[in-house]
Structures are given as C-alpha cells and as structure tokens.
Write a structure and sequence with these properties.
Distance between the termini: 32 Å
Number of helices: 4
Number of strands: 2
Radius of gyration: 17 Å
Oligomer: single chain
C-alpha cells in the first residue's frame, strides 16, 4: 500500500472534486479571490490531469480494462 501524507492547508474557499464543474468554479473563484487577497483550494481524489470528467485519461482506462491487475493490455482496449 502507498505511503500517504497528511497535509494541513488553510484556505478561504475549499472546492471538493476535480470534475469539469469544479475546475471551472476553481478557475473563476481564483480570479476573484486574487483581487481580494483570498485563497482558493481544489482537492480531488486523483491526479487532475488524468482523471475525472475533464480528461478521463489513463487512470480511467486502466481502471476499466484491468491493465493495473495484468488482466488486459492497452491493445486489448483498442481492439
């Protein structure tokens, strides 16, 4: 099992989830927050560049086709 690290962060606005809506909200909120000296934090369970509705990249593909468990290959998925 991976070694997880607990990080304590102070923020003015906490956004949970890294889907399309949350990323849009975080972008807009950060624009206004910066003008007012506020901090916006977005937290998601996975890497934002490879997960969620925004990218649906390798994390999702590997999960669905079982690549991480050695059940299938990327070629199986393409086929």
């Amino acid at each position: 099992m991976a070694n997880f690290e607990t990080v304590e962060v102070s923020t003015d606005l906490l956004i949970l989830g890294g889907g399309f809506s949350a990323c849009g909200v975080a972008t807009e909120a950060a624009y206004w927050a910066k003008k007012n000296g506020l901090k916006v934090t977005l937290v998601d369970k996975a890497a934002l560049d490879r997960s969620g509705a925004v990218a649906m990249g390798l994390s999702a593909i590997n999960q669905y086709v079982g690549v991480k468990d050695g059940e299938n290959t990327c070629e199986d998925y393409v086929r």
